[in-house]
Amino acid sequence: MTEAPSRGMLLELGEDLGHPGVQLGSRTIAGVEAWRAAAAVATPPERAAWLLRLSEHLLVATPHARARLDAWTRSPIRTPGTAAWIRDSVLFFGDRAVLDYVVAALLFVPPPVRDFVVVQECCFEAVGADSYAWIGSSRKVDRDGRDRPRTIVLSGAAPHLPRLIGAVLHEISHAWTTPTPSVLVTVQGEEGLRNYLTQQGLTERFDKQVGLDERLARALASVWAAQGEE
Predict the structure, then answer these.
(1) What is the radius of gyration, based on Cα positions, of the chain?
(2) Maximum separation of any 2 CA atoms in the chain, in Å
(3) Whose C-alpha in 46, 89, 133, 174 is 20 to 30 A from the C-alpha of 118?
(4) Is the pLDDT confidence value at 16 over 60?
(5) For residues 104 and 164, what is the distance between their CA atoms, to the nearest angstrom?
(6) Cα(21)–Cα(53) distance, integer angstroms
(7) Predicted structure pTM score
(8) Virtual CA dihedral for 104, 109, 113, 114, nearest 10 degrees?
(9) pLDDT in tens, 144-192
(10) 53 Cβ contact list (under 8 Å, min separation 6)
(11) Strands (E), the chain
(12) Domain residue spans of the chain
């Protein structure tokens, strides 16, 4: 069952998505005023159902997501999408015990997202389950010699395993909705960026974008987890 979003999160998602029409039982909720009125009285099960009704809107919530879905729709190539195909095709490095969680998560997501992650964009690294540490090349290349621009790093430590599928879904959501990175930014670089934004008075704009990215990732991960359990 989908975890019910808070009323505040629902209203923020409404702002993010333009308050689309949602059929909730016998009611159609559309527009900012209707969203506010319905959210004020919606029960947790109703809010959970409401979030699920937003799945199609969340899938195309950003320009990057829309472009990726359009590219997949136009492409004549379709992959099997089975567990066996995912296990054989996904670019995974590190602790083998974590691979099962990655495969399970990728079975939950829609085919366009799965193909984007497995075939085009992402690789996965895991540590903490079978090993404390490992060393390898920093260059991640698939069977066709193509570099992967995005790495999803996972902890396989025992305390994290119960929520690991959800964590994988969350990071896949980020990959789907955000721009493809050109380089991996260091911690020092992130600190320098934060200092610069503070000096320029731009932290509020930056934090607003981060909040949007996190909100969409949380919502998509929750929807995909619920759909995968059906």
Answers:
(1) 19
(2) 57
(3) 133
(4) yes
(5) 10
(6) 9
(7) 0.93
(8) 30
(9) 899 999 999 999 999 899 999 999 999 999 999 999 988 888 889 989 9
(10) 22, 23, 24
(11) 22-24, 27-29, 92-94, 122-127, 150-155
(12) 7-53, 63-181
From CA 77, how far away is CA 118, in angstroms rounded? Answer: 13
Q: Residue 124: CB partners within 8 Å, gap ≥ 6?
A: 90, 91, 92, 93, 94, 98, 102, 151, 152, 153, 154
- Could you report the per-residue pLDDT of 114-151, keeping only the tens digit for each? 999 999 999 999 999 999 999 999 889 998 899 999 99
- In this structure, the dihedral spanned by the alpha carbons of residues 39, 7, 222 and 25, taken in order and rounded to 10 degrees, is -20
Range with the largest mean pLDDT of 22-31, 75-84, 141-150: 75-84
Residue 43 scores a pLDDT above 70: yes
Burial 186-225 (b: 16+ CB within 10 A, else e): eeeeeeeeeeeeeeeeeeeeeeeeeebeebbbbbbbbbbb
Residues 142/143/144/148 CA torsion (nearest 10 deg): 0
